[in-house]
Amino acid sequence: MSCSYCWTKLLASLMGPTSCAHWETLPPQLVRPMSTKLLSRVSAFVEGIGIGSGVKISVATHTIPISGESSTLNPSLDGNQTDSALDAEALIQHRRQFSSLAGKRYFNYGGQGPMADSAIAALSDGQKTIQMKGPFSAEVYEWITEEGRLVRDAIASTLGVTAETITLTENVTVGCNIPMWGLPWKAGDHILMGDCEHPGIIAAVRELCRRYEVTVSTCPLSDLLQGGDPVEIIQQGLRAETRLVVISHILWNTGQVLPIKELAALCHDHSSKTRLLVDAAQSVGSLPLDQTGWRLSETEVDFYAFTGHKWLGGPAGLGGLYTRPAVFEETVPTYIGWRGVEVDGTGEPTGWESTGRKYEVATSDYSLWGSLREAIAVQDSWGDSQARYNRICSLSRKLWEGLREMLHVRCVLQDAPPPSGLVSFQLLDADGTPDFEQHGALAKQLEGEKIYVRTLLSPNCVRACVHYLTTAEEIDDLIIRIQTVAEKFGG
Amino acid sequence: MSCSYCWTKLLASLMGPTSCAHWETLPPQLVRPMSTKLLSRVSAFVEGIGIGSGVKISVATHTIPISGESSTLNPSLDGNQTDSALDAEALIQHRRQFSSLAGKRYFNYGGQGPMADSAIAALSDGQKTIQMKGPFSAEVYEWITEEGRLVRDAIASTLGVTAETITLTENVTVGCNIPMWGLPWKAGDHILMGDCEHPGIIAAVRELCRRYEVTVSTCPLSDLLQGGDPVEIIQQGLRAETRLVVISHILWNTGQVLPIKELAALCHDHSSKTRLLVDAAQSVGSLPLDQTGWRLSETEVDFYAFTGHKWLGGPAGLGGLYTRPAVFEETVPTYIGWRGVEVDGTGEPTGWESTGRKYEVATSDYSLWGSLREAIAVQDSWGDSQARYNRICSLSRKLWEGLREMLHVRCVLQDAPPPSGLVSFQLLDADGTPDFEQHGALAKQLEGEKIYVRTLLSPNCVRACVHYLTTAEEIDDLIIRIQTVAEKFGG
Q1: Quick one: which of B361, B366, B417, B315 has its CA closest to B5?
Q2: Would the CATH topology of B85-103+383-490 be identical to that of B119-379?
Q3: Which fold has domain A119-379?
């Protein structure tokens, strides 16, 4: 039996000094039903093997939370996943900072998050500052340097790492490409990737393999839908020659969360040369990565590529890469420009920058930096990352439960709600068979009503994302609309 | 003897059916004194070899222009390089669109150009459109697609090429890195680069050489300062194994213009495998690349990497790459993402995009696209590219002549003014020796007075750039300030 969130073997941990940290930080709404179930099984197990009840039953009892408890004001829903009047009013007040959310019901956070008005204003302010102080001047250079320091600090704080490990990139994909092209490949090396990766990443790995005579294989992470264990699945895919494992922290199609700490340990135990690259497109800004048990610096993940424009609500065009200090030297820059290079007094390049700036290239839209910082500050002003994650999970459970009750809808995750904000489902015809053409029709029809969801191709489904910004009423509305369309189609 | 602008051998052209197109399009102010000199030499030559005066003397006579003639309203200065009252007023009116130019005297166009207020507003408008229509929705996707089409059209029109040859990048350096990493390298291949390239490009080439066992050598383009011929210099650097030649269209340190059409022909005649990559950081937005004789499509250049944020006055964070159709297939993407990849109905990558989008990666700040388009429109509203270039050359001549008269200043170009807006110079001490420490002091002192110039390390100098937006009065002010500082230092 495993923790559904980090897949730590719970029974194993009962025997040892460590346990799965998630059990102390998971949202109460998610833990409660499972931990009750777990508790009975663990009790039976403990009874069976004769361990005293004091040893680790505390793991289970600890995870049965007091209803509604949270680390900040009003972050979570009550047992029926509806906001209290006070919570609802607080959220409405907070949402007033996001003009773009007005008049619509938005469920595409996994595609792009709405920006707070102040984050949009920060873009203009940044541009005007640059133009007024320069645009090219020593004063602007100092300003950009300081803005870079501040945004790296803000990102590092969000990930639970230090600022010098952070590279700023245009997007998450560039963040993935940096280590993919920067490792010292040898012919015969092997790349293992999950079968749920983004097409862009798949194409990059293929080109990499072609050029460096590297082989690639995929492992069936889609088996997680049938209760598979990701550590076992990846373990079975590892080879003696495996140099790089490429996975996502949150699977963009199913919303499942992979246990990256355990997977990093698996990779590093497998071989001193095996590295783990994590596509964090869906996890930064949704998982509480600055909290104990989640903190990136505790995971030993080698590369973690992310973007600010999805769950953090930052501007499109700014993402980044975390590189674990232990693998920083072996990973060299590929696309290269002045930002990553040190020069001598004659302008001659003498080496790389000693921080994550090593992989940065050249001139960017620097106004994005202050905007992302503002976006992070707005989110923090509502509640800490744990509170926001609790709320996301409460809401995705609410949506998932609502969808599960529908006759003509099948949730992609059938046994438990996603431990993230991504809820994927399929529409079923009168015979109970998914009809993929209907997904596009549903997304189109809903967009006409200013309800925003998207379709995915693999598995062919519709994805609705909930954020801490989502209201319970939005979910109720979405459920009603899907129900109406699904019945019309399926009936 | 060569044309000072494209280095076409004039005497050779006298013998054949073609001549150098620049002689018909160069700014009158620049051509006049030289063509007079040329005329006498050519006449003597023609007399010497017995060719009738009718054959090609027309090349010289054609280039003696009518004073002040230009292709649009008031684009050029009079013989003393001062604006007429009417011209000055028109320019002041035009400059009112650039709030950032108010209260300062700006000469760092080669670092970053000022943005028109409407181009800054286009950024906000773009962000708001995305946020209001989505941010992630089918409607936004359509809007982004159309914005991409429009900005590629605008760029292509500026370069005199077709839109499908254009790749949008974050900056000029990424544009250079795409072909550098995308050519099918073989161990033993050779790269020839000029000795005036940007440190970031030098570092990229070195890393490329290390990885693919490719060799690099530099050719002394700095000899152009002593009257060297760039075609000869590069010809001497070519080897049987030369796969790529990397040069700049305008040398960022001296302001000299390289004859890229002739150099492309040289490369292609040398070997069917030799490609020419041009760093166009300083040329796009300053040279009239949409005019006959300059048009990129006429040059056969293989790769031309540029940015919008310097001479075009666009936003930082958006540049591009032109790829000649004949070399498009052999040049593969390196950093790869969804924007460059085609997928099938299951989301499986099936190949590359068939246009320049092949080399684009993933999510960008799409609001930059409309902003650059607006920046280009503002420039076009003042006069066509030929008129703007005429004015740039008139002004750089004015500045160069002013500097040349100073006892304690030495222009980096000593024999003729730069055929571009980049004017570099050194401060001399009492013994007539350049004192490099003084350059930083001058730039700092001037910035304190809101006069913006920059220092360069190789050659160690100060660079002041003039744009068509520059006023004659700004140059007068700059000359006076440099004179004062130089005398204080040199005296």
Answers
A1: B417
A2: no
A3: Aspartate Aminotransferase; domain 2 (3.40.640)
B323 in Cβ contact with B312 (< 8 Å): no
Give the A:B interface size as CB pairs under 8 Å: 261
CA-to-CA dists, residue A19 to A9, A267, A300, B63, B369, angstroms: 9, 20, 17, 85, 51
What interface predicted TM-score (ipTM) does this complex get?
0.86
Q: What are phi and psi of B28, to 5 degrees?
A: -55, -40
Considering CB atoms only, which of A123, A174, A368 is closest to B361? A174
- CA gap B336, B349 in Å, rounded: 11
B306 - beta bridge partners?
B320
For A287-311, the pLDDT digits (tens) are: 999 999 999 999 999 999 999 999 9
Q: In angstroms, rounded to a whole number, what is the distance separating the alpha carbons of residues A418 and A398?
A: 11
The DSSP symbol for A383 reads -
Mind listing the pLDDT tens digit for each residue in B129-163? Answer: 999 999 999 999 999 999 999 999 999 999 999 99
Which residue does chain A place closest to B445, by CA atoms? A138
Q: Which element (helix H / strand E) includes B215?
A: strand B215-219
Q: Which of A108, A138, A309 sits opposite B363 (nearest CB)?
A: A309
Domain ranges of chain A: 10-62, 119-379, 383-490
Neighbours of A414 (CB within 10 A): 11
Instruction: List CB contacts (< 8 A) between A371 and chain B.
Output: none
Place of tokens 């073989």: B186
Contact A361 B173 (CB under 8 A): yes
Architecture of domain B85-103+383-490: Alpha-Beta Complex (3.90)
> Measured between alpha carbons, how far is A244 from A229 in angstroms, rounded to an integer?
20
Query: What CATH class does A383-490 carry?
Result: alpha beta
Question: Which residue in this structure is represented by tokens 């952070």?
Answer: A166
Residue of B221, B215, B165 lying closest to B358 (CA atoms): B165
pLDDT in tens, A81-115: 677 888 889 999 999 999 999 999 999 999 999 99
Q: Which residues are CB-neighbours of A176 under 8 A, at least 6 positions away?
A: A201, A204, A246, A277, A279, A303, A305, A321
Residue A51 CB neighbour total at 10 angstroms: 15
Interchain proximity A447–B368, CB inside 8 Å: no
Residue B247 DSSP SS3 = strand
Burial B155-177 (b: 16+ CB within 10 A, else e): bbbbbbbbbebbbbbbbbbbbbb
Q: Which residue has the tokens 């991504």?
A: A422
A316 to B108: CB separation less than 8 angstroms, yes or no = no
Residue B457, SS3 per DSSP: strand
The two tokens of residue A456 are 């995915």
Asked whether the whole model's pTM tops 0.90, one would answer no
Q: For residue A254, which amino acid is it?
A: T
Contact criterion met (CB below 8 Å) for A241 and A188? yes
Q: How far is A203 from chain B (nearest CA, A)?
A: 6
State which amino acid sits at residue A62. H
Amino acid at A237: G
Residues 6+ apart with CB under 8 A from B17: none
Do B427 and B440 contact (CB within 8 A), yes or no? no
Report which of A188, A216, A195 is spatially closest to residue A204, judged by C-alpha positions: A216
pLDDT, one tens digit per residue, over B34-84 is 334 344 444 444 344 443 333 333 332 222 222 223 333 334 465 566 778
Nearest Cβ partner for A317 among B317, B334, B443: B317
The span from the CA of A27 to the CA of A193, in Å, is: 30
Judge whether residue A63 has pLDDT over 60: no
Read off the amino acid at residue B391: R
Say if residues A442 and A421 touch (Cβ distance below 8 Å): no
